[in-house]
Design brief:
Blueprint: H1 3-12, E1 37-40, E2 49-55, E3 63-73, E4 75-80, E5 87-90, E6 95-102, E7 110-117, E8 124-131, E9 142-147, E10 156-163, E11 172-177, E12 182-187, E13 193-202, E14 207-214, E15 226-230, E16 235-238, E17 257-258, E18 264-272, E19 275-283, E20 290-295, E21 315-316, E22 320-326, E23 331-336, E24 341-346, E25 352-357, E26 363-364, E27 377-381, E28 388-393, E29 403-410, E30 415-422, E31 438-441, E32 447-451, E33 461-465, E34 471-477, E35 485-493, E36 498-499
Parallel strand pairs: 19-21, 26-30
Antiparallel strand pairs: 1-2, 2-3, 3-6, 4-5, 4-7, 5-36, 7-8, 9-34, 10-11, 10-35, 11-12, 13-14, 14-15, 15-16, 17-18, 18-19, 19-20, 22-23, 23-24, 24-25, 27-28, 28-29, 29-30, 31-32, 32-33, 33-34
Length: 501
């Protein structure tokens, strides 16, 4: 790989546990070999038998709880420690054989596990315990600098992280809670994956889709580009193997999605001479057979360029970094960073319905000195024909600052106005990020922001800001003398756990 193309690729990329016996029922002896398992097989009790707590070796901050009841019972479990209030998980139906996956634990704590019958007057059936382990020691140091609990949205933050040097990049996904503690992780280390490129939580299936940033050494080997896992870390699906690498010909870039119908969608890299562009594809998840596609070259004239003999001159033309597809309604939204344009597209005809941006189809209403976004990331629209679009507006070097901006659009009058703007300048929290970034609406109205940097002049962070411009939660990442964490995007979501207060 030549030097200039390697720089282009780098800039585009996203760049011991034990179980403690605390069971209140009688127990068989536990041998040294069984130190990771606690079991109960007491024929004298008719409440609960065969109690077992087993560590999850893929994630030491979780364990598996199984037990039997003589009668069919609907049960629930509470688990907590002296310093962590913990969670409650309940079954949906009565049964004899019971299974719970207990997760979301913090590191190196003794958790009490209580099992109850799920009735109008719950009965405590048994109490046992589990000692949580440690997350990988290479995870970055994080510092919680702001936390207004009353105004912060509850939930977990799911993210993957890159770094400014390759020796600090690992293919790992992480969750942290609102107190800044690591509560979940997943490691995946095939030889061809240098890092995770995109990680997304699906609340309907309670699964996680992970796109892989495949190393260039995989160009001539069949290797998957994405996997889907459950919370236990079990791989439920793997993309078909292709012979390419991240940002290589025919591979994905920036965003990888699984649709409700099970198909996948992503910007697919196209090398057209010395022009690097992409087309939006919707593919069968198991065969990668094409279902639908959309190509910029059908609507825009690609720029002229001449590659020299070594092929080290490329024009990064479109640089798509976000796709939002509503297949049933036949609408897709596409964001081109380098066009500084957000497109609405009719999937049936491929026609561009409208373009939002400086040279687009909307007239700006208002007197904001910076009416339009520049080089933005991850636009989010509020529904298939929504009227509000929020963006992580990176801003050009000439403008010199990044902001979160929301546009309210009117498709009848074809007007757009800014109805929310936050650049941090009023509270001495301004920043500028030439690449990367994410802004997501939360259920409480706040906006969750990922501000991750590739330069060493700033510190990568997550923060949550209210509509009034107050930062109510902020998590800073470590920054060494010669490297720092670089964050592309993150999801803040409400996990399928009931938080004990």
């Amino acid at each position: 790989m030549n030097r200039i193309f390697a720089i282009l690729l780098l800039s585009l990329a996203f760049l011991s546990v034990s179980c403690e016996n605390k069971v209140s029922l009688q127990h068989n002896d536990i041998s040294d070999e069984d130190i990771d398992v606690i079991s109960d097989d007491d024929p004298e009790t008719d409440l609960l038998t065969d109690l077992k707590v087993e560590e999850n070796r893929q994630n030491s901050l979780s364990c598996r709880l199984t037990f039997s009841t003589a009668d069919e019972k609907k049960t629930f479990v509470k688990y907590y420690s002296s310093t962590h209030s913990g969670y409650k998980i309940a079954e949906n139906e009565a049964k004899n054989e019971h299974y719970f996956f207990l997760w979301g634990m913090r590191e190196n704590l003794d958790y009490t596990i209580e099992i109850y019958s799920d009735e109008e007057e719950p009965e405590l059936l048994a109490t046992t315990g589990f000692h949580s382990g440690n997350a990988p020691n290479y995870l970055p140091v994080m510092n919680l600098t702001e936390h207004n609990a009353e105004k912060t949205a509850g939930g977990f933050v799911l993210f993957q992280y890159a770094a400014t040097t390759y020796d600090h990049i690992f293919p790992v996904a992480v969750m942290v809670d609102t107190d800044g503690y690591v509560v979940w992780y997943f490691e995946y280390d095939p030889w061809y994956a240098s890092s995770f490129g995109d990680v997304a939580w699906d609340p309907e299936t309670q699964t996680i889709l992970i796109a892989l940033t495949k190393d260039s050494s995989a160009a001539d080997s069949l290797a998957e580009e994405a996997i889907k896992i459950d919370l236990e870390g079990n791989i439920l699906w793997e993309a078909p193997g292709i012979m390419s690498y991240y940002y290589g010909p025919g591979s994905w870039n920036h965003a990888y999605y699984m649709m409700k119908d099970g198909s996948v969608t992503f910007p697919q890299v196209i090398y057209d001479g010395c022009v690097v562009t992409d087309r939006i594809v919707n593919l069968d998840a198991d065969s990668y057979g094409e279902i639908w596609s959309w190509d910029y070259r059908d609507f825009f004239e690609k720029p002229d360029c001449t590659a020299n003999q070594s092929g080290d001159y490329y024009i990064d033309w479109t640089h798509t970094n976000s796709v939002t597809m509503y297949k049933e309604e036949g609408i897709v939204y596409v964001n081109s960073r380098n066009f500084s344009t957000f497109f609405k597209i009719d999937m049936d005809s491929g026609a561009i319905i409208w373009r939002l941006g400086k040279d687009g189809d909307f007239t700006f209403v208002g007197d904001n000195p910076n009416p339009w976004f520049e080089l933005s990331h991850d636009p989010e629209i509020n529904g298939v024909n929504g009227d509000k679009v929020i963006l992580y507006d990176n801003g050009s070097a000439e403008r010199g600052f990044t902001r979160i901006v929301e546009y309210t659009i009117n498709e009848t009058t074809m007007t757009a106005e800014i109805t929310f703007e936050f650049d941090g300048s009023m509270i001495d929290k301004s920043w500028w990020s030439e690449y990367w970034g994410d802004a997501d609406r939360l259920e409480n109205g706040n906006i969750f922001v990922t501000a991750g940097f590739y330069d060493m002049q700033q510190i990568s962070r997550f923060f949550e800001v209210t509509r009034d411009g107050e930062i109510v939660w902020e998590l800073l990442f470590e920054k060494a003398d010669d490297w720092q964490v670089s964050l592309y995007k993150a999801d803040k979501f409400v996990p399928p756990l009931e938080f004990i207060k």
